[in-house]
Amino acid sequence: MDQLDQLLENNREWAEKIRSHHPDYFTALAKEQHPTILWIGCADSRVPPSVITGADPGMLFMHRNIANLAVHTDAGFHAVLEYAVDLLKVKHVVVAGHYNCGGVKAACSNEPAPDMIDHWIQHIRDIKRIYEPELIKEKDPQKREDRLVELNVIEQVRNIESSSTLKKARKRGQEVAIHGLVYDTGNGLLKRLIQK
Ligand code: CO
To answer: pLDDT digits over 73-119, tens only?
Structure first.
């Protein structure tokens, strides 16, 4: 069976199993969503947010792109952030990076990536340049890359903190915590890096 056919089959079994236990599950969830967390993650197939956290449908509002970037010029991301904070009133915004991130790996390389990807990862190269004095002290290339993964998360948390959406929310007294996490692809665990 083709992999996609298998997924569709899995989906039918999953929906049937839930309906058999909770007949109203989907009709109730279809009406509205009340997630308390906006999750910003990498597009990487090895870090599916709901799977690694056990989150049920309706718990995570989500935005994913290459290397979990929250950049000021990305209108798609800012629409998600604004919707999550202003309308859904999420309590937490999470930026979750991961070690062995292809985007960060590409930014560490001197070889240019394909055009659009190269354009996108310039954001990470900028972070690498800002932290050059710290990164240069680490002689092991893998540890240097791992540190850049962490610094990238920290910088995205700062980008969100300085966004007009967060500034306005905090000015009107809305409590929103911004968290930076990193996922270890080697052991499946999430670690806290920063909270703002
Ligand atoms: Co990645």
So the answer is: 999 999 999 999 999 999 999 999 999 999 999 999 989 888 999 99
Catalytic residue among 63, 101, 146, 147: 101
Helices (H) and strands (E) in the chain, counts: 9, 5
Active site residue 64: no
- Catalytic residue list contains 126: no
What is the span of the domain harbouring residue 68?
33-195
What's residue 1's pLDDT? 80
- Give the closest residue to 101 by CA, choosing from 186, 193, 39: 186
Active-site annotation holds for 78: no
What does pTM read for this prediction? 0.95
Residue 91's φ and ψ, nearest 5 degrees, are: -90, -25
Residues 17, 76 within the same domain: no
Residues 123 and 142 in one domain: yes
CATH number for 182: 3.40.1050.10
- Looking at the structure of the chain, the number of domains it has is 2
Residues 159 and 190 in one domain: yes
Do residues 171 and 112 both lie within one domain?
A: yes
Which residues of the chain have a pLDDT value below 50?
none
Please name the residue ranges forming H helices in the chain: 3-21, 25-31, 49-53, 75-82, 102-108, 115-130, 132-135, 141-161, 164-171
Q: Given this model, what pLDDT does residue 183 score?
A: 98
